[in-house]
Amino acid sequence: MAESPSAPSIARVRIGEAPSLARIDLVSSARRVAALGAAFAAATGVALPCTGRSVRAGEFTVLALAPDRWQIESEGPPGHAIAALGAIAGESGSVVDQSDGSRAFDVAGPGAREVLAKGVPIDLDAAVFRVGDVARTGVALVAVTLRCLSAEPSFRIVVARSYAESFLEWLLDAGAAYGVLRERHSASPR
């Protein structure tokens, strides 16, 4: 861990790249969502979350991006997650590996909401964007998936791999006034 040169002596924001995870999109048609939801609940014991929410289901973290679209994160190899989700989805949904197409960053600490508010057009107040909430939005003109991980606050931001470096530069610049500690790898909760 190295402190950025412009950071005050006490960092109010920690920024680090999140651990690499398998990221699998699970997509259904409007007429098959109920069947997919039933199959997922039967296999995992957990209902697919409603749009804007996330849940933990065994080895999977499920982020609801739209009424018929979920992104599934798994710590295991993508091939295992694809096989397991494909068996669950059957003919009710499609499973697409997105693992290599993105990078994720964790932003945490007392100044995290203020830093993200510089580029996020949604209300990040703790009473509005709660732990487990998910949003597809833009941050500094880059499309991202934003999730609140903990009340600390801690957020995970998934961004297309091709935009990751410029997004990280923006994030570090936005956080400079709050004191930034850049961590090599984050250990934030899933």
Put the structure in a nutshell.
This protein is an alpha+beta fold and 190 residues long. It has helices spanning 33-44, 78-89, 112-117, 164-175; strands at 2-3, 13-17, 22-27, 54-57, 60-66, 69-74, 94-97, 102-108, 134-139, 142-150, 154-160, 180-185.
Describe the overall structure.
By secondary structure, the protein is α+β, with helices and mostly antiparallel strands. The chain folds into 2 domains: 2-19 and 101-185, Gyrase A, domain 2 (2-Layer Sandwich), CATH 3.30.1360; 22-100, Alpha-Beta Plaits. Helices cover 22% and strands 36% of the residues. It has 4 helices and 12 strands, in the order E-E-E-H-E-E-E-H-E-E-H-E-E-E-H-E. The chain has helices at 33-44, 78-89, 112-117, 164-175; strands at residues 2-3, 13-17, 22-27, 54-57, 60-66, 69-74, 94-97, 102-108, 134-139, 142-150, 154-160, 180-185. The protein has a 7-stranded mixed sheet with strand order 1-12-2-8-11-10-9. It has a 5-stranded antiparallel sheet with strand order 4-5-6-3-7, with helices on one face. The chain is elongated. The chain starts with a strand and ends in a 5-residue tail after the last strand. The relative contact order is 0.24.
Offer a few descriptive terms.
single chain, 190 residues, alpha+beta, Gyrase A, domain 2, Alpha-Beta Plaits, seven-stranded mixed beta sheet, five-stranded antiparallel beta sheet, 4 helices, disordered N terminus
How many beta-strand runs?
Answer: 12
Largest sheet: 7 strands, mixed
Provide the gyration radius in Å: 17 Å
CATH superfamily of the largest domain: Probable tRNA modification gtpase trme, domain 1
What distance lies between the first and last C-alpha atoms, to the nearest angstrom?
A: 21 Å
